[in-house]
C-alpha cells in the first residue's frame, strides 16, 4: 500500500495548529509598525535552468519584498541563510553575492547578516523585517467586504508563459517573449504599488501562488464570494500565445504562480483617491473583479467556478 | 588538476565584502534595541542520527537563541523556513511541530510564521528578532581590553564527548555519559546568563564554533592576545573520558564546536557585581582566562599557541 504523500497545505496546517498561528504563510506583525517574513528558495524546485546565479540570488529576495509590499511595508533589513552544495565554485559564489548586492539596491533593503552551510541543494532563505507607515493598520488576507472592488498591480499570465517558453520550448516572439521570459527570470515585486496604496486596502495578498489561489485565500479568509473578470485580468498576448502553442490561456492566467502582482480589495468609494495616488506613484491600477456577498469562499470567472489550485510544493 | 574547494571562511568573506557587512556571522543591530539573526540547520551535516525529530526542530532554534543571549537580547519573534524531503511522513512533520512548540516555550520565543518547501535535505532556517535591555549597548566580538578577564557560562568538552559517544562508539558511564550525550542532543542556550550579564561584557560570543575559534574571534576582532586556562575551562570528567577512549582531551575542550556556552570578556573591576548578578539569576560564572595585551589575535593555553580551528562547513 503506497502511503499518500503529504501536500504543502497539510504540512502548513500541522505547523499552524501546533504553534497557534492563524496565517503561517502571511507576513507577521511583531510590533506597532514592525512586520516579519521569511521565504526559502530551493534551486532544484524553484529555479529554471536558464536563470543565472545572480538572478537566483536576486529572486530569493523578491518573495519577501513582494509579501511586505502587499502589506504596505517598506523593507528595513534582511538576513540571508545559505545552503551551498560542496562542489560550488568561487565564480558561482561571487555571482550570488553580486545578485544580493543588486537586489539590496533595487528593493531598498540592507542585508545585515547571514549564515552559510553545506547542503545537497542550493538553498537560500531570506528573512526580512519591514515597517509599515505610522498611520497604517496592516491589511490582512481576511477583510474583504461585499461591494469592494478587486484591484491588481498588473495583469496575469506572463510568468507562466515565460516558464512554458523556458521549460517546455513553447514558441513566442518579440515583445511578448521578452516580457514573459523576463517576468520568469527577473520578477518585479510591486513595492511602490503596495507601499503607497495599502492604506486603501480592505485585504491584500501577493499573487505568488497564482491568481486563483490568491483570490481563494482572500475569499476564504474574508468569508466572501469573489467574481473575477478574465478579460480584465489577462495580460496582453497571453491568449494568442496559448492558442499558437496549444496551451490553455485560462490556466496560464489563473493557475500560473511565481507571479508577483499585488491583489487587493478596497471599498469602491476609495477608488478615485487610490487612482490618484497610483498615478502619482507611477503605478498601474487595474480593476479585475468584485466582492459579491458573504459567502463560502467561492471564486468565479463568468459562469466558471475557479478551482483553488495554484503552485504547491509536494504535489 | 583538482580544484581547491572553497571553505566557509572564504565564502563568508566573499559575501561580507560584496554586501559591506563587517560581521556577517554575528547578530545584527537593526534598531535602537532591536537585533536580528538567522541560522540554518541542515540535517545531513548538522544532526547526529540518534537525534529525534522533535530534538532536531528544537535544536534549529537553539543557535539563534544562544547568539541573541550572548548579546544580552531576549527573543521577540521567530520565523521558521522548512525544506522538507518529499518522502517525509506525517508523523515526522508532527514531531517537528512538537519540537518547535517545546522550543517556543523553553526559550520564550513566539514563532510567528514560516515557509515550507520541497528539498533534498531536511533544512530548517530559523530567523529571530530580539530586544536588548533599554540601557544596553550591545557587546560585539571586538571590544576586549588588556586587563579584562575572560568569563564563561559553563565549562567545555561535553558536546564533543557526547558526539564521540554517539558517532564513534566511544565509551562512557553514568552521569558523565548522560551530561555529554544530553549536551549534544539537547543543547541549552545560556539565556539567563547572557541577558542578565551582557551589560558587564566588553566583548562576547557564543561558543558554537568551539572554544578556541570563539576566543580567536574575540582576540582578532579586538586586536588583543588572550590567555586561556585549560584546567579552568575543562568540564569535569572530560580528561578521564578522553584517556579511557584514546582521545585528545585538549581537542574535545578547545576544538569541539556545537557548544552553546557564552564566552565574554569584562573589566576585572566589574567581577564582584557580575558575580552577584549571576548568583541572583541562578547562573554559574566561570573565569577561564585573561586578556593580555594589544596584540595580533593570539590565543594561548599555558605555553601552547592555540590554533584558530573549530567546526567549519565545507572542510
Describe it.
- Two copies of one chain form a homodimer.
- Chain A is an alpha+beta fold and 315 residues long.
- Chain A folds into two domains: 27-132, 2-Layer Sandwich (60s Ribosomal Protein L30, Chain: A); 149-305, Phosphoribosyl-aminoimidazole Synthetase, Chain A, domain 2 (Alpha-Beta Complex).
- The first copy, chain A, is built from twelve helices and twelve strands.
- Chain A has helices at residues 8-19, 43-46, 53-70, 90-107, 158-168, 174-185, 191-197, 211-222, 230-233, 238-244, 249-254, 271-280; strands at residues 28-29, 34-42, 73-84, 110-118, 123-132, 149-152, 203-206, 224-228, 262-266, 286-294, 299-301, 304-305.
- In chain A, the strands form two sheets. A seven-stranded mixed β-sheet of chain A has the order 7-9-6-10-8-11-12.
- In chain A, β3, α4 and β4 form a beta-alpha-beta unit.
- Chain A is globular, with a radius of gyration of 19 Å.
- The two termini of chain A are 19 Å apart.
- Chains A and B meet through α1, β2, α2, β3 and α4 of A and α1, β2, α2, β3 and α4 of B.
Key phrases:
315 residues; globular; 7-stranded mixed sheet; 60s Ribosomal Protein L30, Chain: A; Phosphoribosyl-aminoimidazole Synthetase, Chain A, domain 2; alpha+beta; ATP binding (chains A, B); EC 2.7.4.16 (chains A, B); homodimer; 2 domains; 5-stranded mixed sheet; 12 strands; 12 helices; ThiL-like (chains A, B)
How do you describe this structure in short?
Two copies of one chain form a homodimer. Chain A has helices at 8-19, 43-46, 53-70, 90-107, 158-168, 174-185, 191-197, 211-222, 230-233, 238-244, 249-254, 271-280; strands at residues 28-29, 34-42, 73-84, 110-118, 123-132, 149-152, 203-206, 224-228, 262-266, 286-294, 299-301, 304-305.
